[in-house]
Amino acid sequence: MFKPLRIGKVEVPIPIIQGGMGVGLSWEQLAGHVAKEGAIGVVSAVGTGYRHPNLVKRDRFGRPIGSVNVHNKEALTRIIRDAKDISEGNGAIGVNILAAITDYGRVVRDAAEAGADLIISGAGLPLKLPEYVDGYDVALVPIVSSARAVNLICKTWKRRYNRLPDAIILEGPLSGGHQGFKYEQCFMEEYQLENLFYEVLKEVKKWGNIPLIVAGGIWSYEDIKHYLERGADGVQMATRFITTYECDAPLIYKELLLKARKEDIILLKSPVGYPLRVIRTPFIERLLNGVNGWNGCVSNCVVPCNKGEEAKKVGFCIADRLGYAWLGDYEEGIFISGANGYRLHKQGMISVKRLINILTGKEEDPTLK
């Protein structure tokens, strides 16, 4: 049996964090059911206006207009509270908030006000994160990709706010979400999780008893054991949860992933300014063949995109394409997956409960046969 995971005042019996996946993969159903089983379920704060379109102002194509609508406060509040209801008081509910989004500080405060147990933040260095939760008792967990980032965050938080992170997530380059590496680095041996781990662990321990969570390619019970035995306190996993019945993703997303081969999952440059790993679909094929699929900026979803300038360069708006995926549009959507997503065909569709049993060694893992 694994040891419980404690992050600030949050303590859960299973040291697994379900990674935040937006738009629409991890909202109340997935996060709530993961927490119900005794782990940490994580809601994505990105694109919440798509979850509750009746609450937001949209254009004639259904796209939320502006950051206040695409990353909507009332929608996020409903999602968090619904997830907590589903959890029945078990586990914990976190919120993943990309540091790169427009209105970052406002969305962090929205999550704290809504009762999030912890806030996880990456895709940029969340150096000002503590100031946005002043007055709220919420654990703060930055995502890093190097020991240098750990040092910078801890030094800055200590000097400015007299606090340190409640935990740190080290994410390697095999994850689906936006990478903390340059495109070329994602394929280099020295930047793989296994080779970053000890240096980051050493730096984390310099700052005290801060839990270290590892992510980005963690797949099995054996992977979890491997890192826990070497000094990690927990793991974060995302892609494996997509083909659970409870995952908020549309059925077409799950079916697409169950059919994916290794060569169908590729790394792509994103308007967010970080590489993104996606499944080959008709839109991706057109994009790779030089077709620009940008249709103007409506949502102003991320700061690095500069109101559509970067989206125009790379050929797509990230909010639009993830929104299409959430709506089940196979032709136009972008469907994210971690590097190991092709292994899900052996898992098939299963419940969150069964997956947690597999990941804690209580049941045999069908993907390892």
Alpha-carbon Rg, integer:
19 Å
Strand order of the largest sheet: 3-10-9-8-7-6-5-4
Structural shape: globular
The H/E string reads EEEHEHHEHEEHEHEHEHEEHHHH
Tally of helical runs: 12
The percent range for strand residues is 5-15%
Q: Gap between N and C termini, in Å?
A: 22 Å
Q: In terms of per-residue confidence, which ranges show pLDDT below 50 for 5 or more consecutive residues?
A: none
Largest sheet entry: 8 strands, parallel
CATH architecture term of the largest domain: Alpha-Beta Barrel
Describe this structure in words.
With 369 residues, this protein is α/β, with parallel strands linked by helices. The protein folds into 2 domains: 5-249 and 344-363, Alpha-Beta Barrel (TIM Barrel), CATH 3.20.20; 253-326, no CATH class. The protein has helices spanning 28-36, 67-70, 73-87, 104-113, 147-161, 193-206, 221-229, 251-259, 282-288, 309-314, 318-326, 352-359, and strands at 5-7, 10-12, 16-18, 40-44, 92-96, 118-121, 139-144, 168-171, 212-215, 234-237, 265-269, 275-279. The protein has an 8-stranded parallel beta sheet with strand order 3-10-9-8-7-6-5-4. Strand 11 and strand 12 form a beta hairpin. Helix 1 (28-36) runs parallel beside helix 3 (73-87). It is globular. The model has no long low-confidence stretch (mean pLDDT 96).
Question: What topology emerges from the helices and strands here?
Answer:
Layout: E1 5-7, E2 10-12, E3 16-18, H1 28-36, E4 40-44, H2 67-70, H3 73-87, E5 92-96, H4 104-113, E6 118-121, E7 139-144, H5 147-161, E8 168-171, H6 193-206, E9 212-215, H7 221-229, E10 234-237, H8 251-259, E11 265-269, E12 275-279, H9 282-288, H10 309-314, H11 318-326, H12 352-359
Parallel strand pairs: 3-10, 4-5, 5-6, 6-7, 7-8, 8-9, 9-10
Antiparallel strand pairs: 1-2, 11-12
